[in-house]
Amino acid sequence: MSLSGAVRRAVGSLIHRGWAAIRAAGAVTPLSPAGYRFRRLGEGALLSFPIGAIFGEAWIEIGEHTLIGERVSISAGMGPGVDLGPDSIVRIGGSCSIGRGSHIVGHQSIDIGDHVFTGPYVYITDQNHVYDDPEMPIGRQWPRNNPVAIGSGSWLGTGAIILPGTRIGRQCVVAGGAVVRGEFPDHSVIAGVPARVVRHHVPGEGWVPPHLDDAHVELAGSLGTGGALVESAALNGALAESAAIDGALVESAAVDGPGHRTPLI
């Protein structure tokens, strides 16, 4: 190895070691000075360095062993130094992992359960601007709040957007890039713009599109009417399932536009 190559290698090693030391020193833990500003920062929790925009810590709770990725912004209220009352506003459960570059913006109530994982660049907010006055700039119209809840064990894919008023059940999957508003039951797969349930777990049946539930009921109701009807119902059910899946693909392609089909999980 040449002298210049050896120098570059040594300098590079020093830079990487120095950056690792800076990251370790800059991380926020329950024992660091910045950790004491939170209402609760559980044992083993860590906010990775570089830190995003963090304010309103007195109204933010983060559970035990939760990892907050680099450049994640978590805020409570419109800005620092505002008294938001006696109750916490942003609550993140234990053993969660929040992907780098994500934003959690709370003004009234955001509840994230235990063991929730997100990809990077996920956006979660309980506030949105209104458009009551068509002549006033939208950014100057007073926003409205609506609580958000994300059930334990759920996974939010990269770039998902969770809008005010959304309630996601337990053990749900939100597809990457989905724009989510509304209420969704446990064990759902949620995808699209706007998001909808594309798969739902039915005990004894497994993962099926939700619009096949009626077909299963009709098939079950025909079981006592004779062999021919059973055979016919089974055939029709299979055809209906195939048509429903094809219809969902067509509908998804129509929503997302040409060349932007949302894959069904």
Strand order of the largest sheet: 1-4-7-10-15-18-21
Uncertain regions spanning at least 5 consecutive residues = 217-265
Gyration radius (Cα, Å) is 24 Å
Instruction: Tell me the distance between the termini.
Output: 51 Å
Structural class: alpha/beta
Map the helices and strands.
Layout (H helix, E strand, L loop, with lengths): L2 H24 L13 E2 L4 E2 L6 E2 L4 E3 L4 E2 L4 E4 L13 E3 L4 E2 L4 E4 L3 E3 L4 E2 L4 E3 L1 E2 L15 E2 L2 E3 L4 E2 L4 E2 L4 E2 L4 E2 L4 E2 L2 E2 L3 E4 L4 E7 L3 E3 L4 H9 L5 H30 L9
Parallel strand pairs: 1-4, 2-5, 3-6, 4-7, 5-8, 6-9, 7-10, 9-12, 10-15, 11-16, 12-17, 15-18, 16-19, 17-20, 18-21, 19-22
Antiparallel strand pairs: 13-14, 22-23, 23-24
Helix pairs in contact: 2-3
What key phrases describe this protein's structure?
265 residues, six-stranded parallel beta sheet, alpha/beta, globular
Put the structure in a nutshell:
By secondary structure, this protein is an alpha/beta fold.
Give an overview of the whole structure.
The protein is of the alpha/beta class and 265 residues long. Helix content is 24%, strand content 25%. The chain is built from 3 helices and 24 strands. The strands form 5 sheets. The chain has a 7-stranded parallel beta sheet, with no helix packed on it. A hairpin with a 4-residue loop joins β22 and β23. α2 packs antiparallel against α3 (227-256). The N and C termini lie far apart (51 Å). Mean pLDDT is 84; it is low at 217-265.
